[in-house]
Design brief:
With 428 residues, the protein is α/β, with parallel strands linked by helices. The chain contains ten helices and 20 strands. The strands form three sheets. Strands 1-2-3-13-4-14-18-16-17 form a nine-stranded mixed sheet, with helices on both faces. Strands 8-7-10-5-6-9 form a six-stranded antiparallel sheet. It has a five-stranded mixed sheet with strand order 11-12-20-19-15, with no helix packed on it. Helix 5 packs across helix 10. The longest helix is centred in the middle third of the chain and has 16 residues.
């Protein structure tokens, strides 16, 4: 596949996925088009050898899988990512009226880098639960898909120390500016009803919502030779897309699985997070015989795909001198002695061999010994399933900013590596 075509598909996916709910809906649409059948928890499953299926939980986590054919090894090559990104979520009673301006109060979701949220064109999206004209509760996906709000910075003239030391108070500095002439009777729920009706939904009243502000600026290729991809939510929609396209493209008789969890950015402890029961419950229904399930897991391998920190030319001293991944030099194997990443020598050797077979570049990241290390769903999934696991990711800049930066060559390279992993017959 040409790199430009792959990037265009990736950028469209990111634009279509302002929230985890939208990301799962977009992935479900692509899986359906590729011949994957949707399963429901409440139904009795009639899965078949070689069959391809997907299932969702909370509309924000998705598992897609291909069962092994009868003559294939009973194992699963699995890839995991996460659908959520740091953002600003609207509070339940969000309306704020100050000095003639209409604002909305927000909570910070995850470890967001807050300064870049100022002076951006923001839109609003998420899940809304309302009552329809028949009095039934209905869940709707909503995306205003237009510049709706902003958080203006305070002028330098009024804060002369802003460039030296300025912390952001989430309670007082982040209320989002929505308008000026909306009046004291303005209601966010009424605004949501109007928007839903404008999109063809017969809704009488909004009861509740889960809404997030997001950067309205579209993804773009940046650089003299378009060496970089700039976009919101690269962490971790990039990995979701690479895992999805690799799964769909894989040509193999063996078992494959992709899981994209919600709530990784806040610790994964939820029904739809990696610490929840979803993945194991799916595997138990695929393999209802306990002994066979454990045999399958013993033969399986899991790749946790989540972005890595590329060495920043202005801050090179933030990296270990011998472990500074570079953009456009291939995906990164992430290693940590304290099990913040789940990589071990066996899984690392396997992926290095796969990369060598396809002549794909591969890098390694270890955090500086005097710095704390982040983590992923890798160690959580490894602990829950007892499965061999490796942490892998595309190197990026500005992780957890409202707009992040990756190398434009790395997504296709990583897709090719994940496809090779799905199709591989290597046994370790």
């Amino acid at each position: 596949m040409p790199q430009k075509d792959y990037l265009n598909g990736l950028m469209s996916f990111i634009s279509d996925s302002p929230t985890p709910f939208h990301a799962v809906a977009a992935m479900a649409q692509q899986l359906t088009a590729a011949g994957y059948g949707k399963l429901e928890v409440a139904d009795k499953w009639h899965v078949q050898a070689g069959g391809r299926y997907f299932i969702t939980r909370n509309d924000s986590t998705i598992v897609a899988f291909q069962l092994p054919k009868k003559n294939a090894l009973q194992r699963m090559h699995m890839v995991g990512a996460h659908t959520d990104s740091p953002c600003l979520k609207v509070k339940p009673n969000a309306e704020i009226h100050q000095k003639g301006y209409q604002q909305l109060g927000v909570e910070v979701y995850g470890g967001a880098l807050l300064h870049p949220w100022f002076d951006r064109d923001l839109s609003l999206a998420g899940r809304v639960v309302g009552r329809d004209n028949q009095g039934q509760l209905v869940s709707y996906l909503l995306d205003f898909n237009r510049p709706l709000a902003c958080i203006p910075s305070l002028a330098i003239h009024l804060d002369r120390e802003a460039n030296k030391a300025h912390s952001v108070n989430p309670q007082t500095d982040l209320p989002v500016l929505l308008g000026q002439t909306l009046g004291d009777e303005f209601s966010l729920r009424s605004l949501l009803v109007d928007e839903l009706k404008a999109n063809g939904h017969e809704v009488d009243k909004v009861i509740d919502y889960e809404l997030s502000f997001y950067d309205f600026q579209a993804p773009a290729l940046v650089g003299v030779k378009q060496e970089f991809l700039a976009a919101a939510r690269l962490d971790n929609l990039l990995s979701c897309y690479m895992g999805l396209t690799a799964l769909v493209a894989a040509q193999t008789n063996q078992g494959l699985l992709l899981i994209c969890n919600d709530h990784e950015e806040v610790g994964s402890q939820s029904a739809e997070g990696a610490q929840g029961s979803f993945l194991m419950s799916v595997l138990q229904r695929i393999y209802p015989e306990t002994e066979l399930l454990h045999q399958v897991l013993n033969a399986s391998t899991f790749i946790s795909a989540d972005n890595a920190h590329g060495v920043h030319p202005n801050f090179a001293n933030k990296h270990d001198e011998h472990h500074g991944p570079r953009l456009n030099q291939g995906p990164v194997i992430k290693v940590n002695a304290n099990q913040r990443y789940a990589t071990n020598a066996v899984t690392s050797a396997m992926v290095k061999e796969l990369a060598a077979q396809k002549d794909l570049p591969i890098q390694t990241f270890v955090v500086r010994s005097d710095m704390a290390c982040g983590s992923t769903i890798g160690p959580i999934t490894a602990a829950q399933l007892g499965v061999r696991t490796l942490d892998l990711g595309v190197p990026t800049f500005a992780m957890h900013s409202i707009r992040e930066l990756a190398g434009s060559a790395d997504p296709l390279i990583t897709h090719q590596l994940l496809q090779e992993f799905f199709e591989s017959q290597i046994v370790v």
